[in-house]
Amino acid sequence: MRTKDFKRVYVWELPVRIFHWVNVMCIVVLGATGFMIADPPPIMSAAEASESFWFGTIRAIHFGTAYIFFFNMLMRIYWSFVGNRFASWKQFLPFTKKAWHNFIHVVKIDVLLQNEKKFDLTNISVGHNSVAAFSYLVLFFLALIQVFTGFGLYADNSGWWLPKLFAWVPDFLGGDFITRTIHHVTTWLFILFTLVHVYLVFYHDWLEGRGEVSSMFGGYKFVRDERVKEKVEQTQPEEESTIEQC
């Protein structure tokens, strides 16, 4: 493809990019500290309590990061109603006929690695493709599970009203053990999602050359001219200024 066939499109707004990288940080820290809390190092059983306070620091980091994760998620929900169309909550509901067509295409090409018999420009998404949109919707529900079970387990040890709002969760699920198990299993689902997500991002960046990786730093993607024209027809006037000729 020739460079002149592409236009520079502002896709990911600053709040979306901030949410993304804060989320990355939170998932890494929560995962690392969570596994240490679930399975403390052997040295914990031999050391004196006065020498093991660092483990309390690990718990404090885990709980503090959980608060950041929670409020960051609330910010993203808010921005899904006030941000541009690429950030809109509507993008995460791929239930139209066109969206399902794109969903099947992405599964065939990205997951099953089949070749396209005929190049279809409409299958190149400017924002999220349908598989990504659906996976983020699933991720949102996984995040809710983590919030409810995590704060539910923390409620008895917290003096703040926010975690105590979730004190009913362990009783509802049948006790601390099952609540902790659900929390732990969901962590592994987050890890699985992260591995697939990173693979697909770099795969698209290499295959399509549209700045998939750099777009989450600067906000811009490079989109085929014909695809931009199709999208501009559905775009509000104030958003048209975000499209630049290369």
Automatic annotation (TrEMBL):
GO terms for biological process: respiratory electron transport chain. It is a multi-pass membrane protein. NCBIfam families: CytB-hydogenase. Gene3D superfamilies: Transmembrane di-heme cytochromes, Chain C (1.20.950.20). Keywords: Cell membrane, Electron transport, Heme, Iron, Membrane, Metal-binding, Transmembrane, Transmembrane helix, Transport. One of its GO terms (molecular function) is heme binding. Residues 11-219 form the Cytochrome b561 bacterial/Ni-hydrogenase domain. InterPro entries: Cyt_b561_bac/Ni-Hgenase, Di-haem_cyt_TM, Hydrogenase_cytochrome, Ni-dep_Hydgase_cyt-B. It is found in: Cell membrane. It comes from Robertkochia marina. The chain crosses the membrane at residues 21-38, 58-79, 133-155, 182-202. Its main location: membrane. PROSITE patterns: NI_HGENASE_CYTB_2. Pfam families: Ni_hydr_CYTB (PF01292). One of its GO terms (cellular component) is plasma membrane. The keyword Coiled coil does not apply. This is Ni/Fe-hydrogenase, b-type cytochrome subunit. Belongs to the HupC/HyaC/HydC family. The keyword Phosphoprotein does not apply.
